[in-house]
Amino acid sequence: MTTYAASYSGPSVADYLAAPAYPSFDLASVYNVALQYQGVPYVYGGATPAGFDCSGFVMYVYAQFGISLPHSSTGQGAAGTRIALADAQPGDLVIMDGHDGFYAGNGNILHAPYEGAAVRVQPIWTSDYYIVRLGI
């Protein structure tokens, strides 16, 4: 396991769950917070701004709103309600097989893609996904 956490000294998921930075929850706010992490490197198992994996990124952002999620794309998909793509808004979750991220509008995803890449917005590359909304 990498010791990436040593380079980050800010709040953890647990810290945010205990004292949310944003006690009121709306999708636009979630998405705007998530956008701030563009450029953070992908780190397998990562759940801090020192490095994120896909579900660690989603977990960290939602924790800032007091919403506890598992560190698993499957578990995160199960935590919400499936909605139609036509109803998707930035801040909803895009759930794929073994991967997830934030819906970014216009068929795009904001996510921590893979080793060697950083958090970014890009077009959704597969038709095998669904949209989940948390908090409804």
TrEMBL record:
UniProt keyword Zinc-finger present: no
SUPFAM superfamilies: Cysteine proteinases
One example of a Gene Ontology biological process annotation: proteolysis
InterPro entries: NLP_P60_dom (IPR000064), Papain-like_cys_pep_sf (IPR038765), PG_Endopeptidase_C40 (IPR051794)
GO MF annotation, one: cysteine-type peptidase activity
Residues covered by the NlpC/P60 domain: 24-136
Family of this protein: Belongs to the peptidase C40 family.
Keywords from the named record: Hydrolase, Protease, Thiol protease
This protein's name: NlpC/P60 domain-containing protein
Superkingdom classification of source: Bacteria
Any one Pfam family match given in the protein's UniProt record, by short name: NLPC_P60
Keyword hit for Protease: yes
Lineage, highest ranks first: Bacteria, Bacillati, Actinomycetota, Actinomycetes, Micrococcales
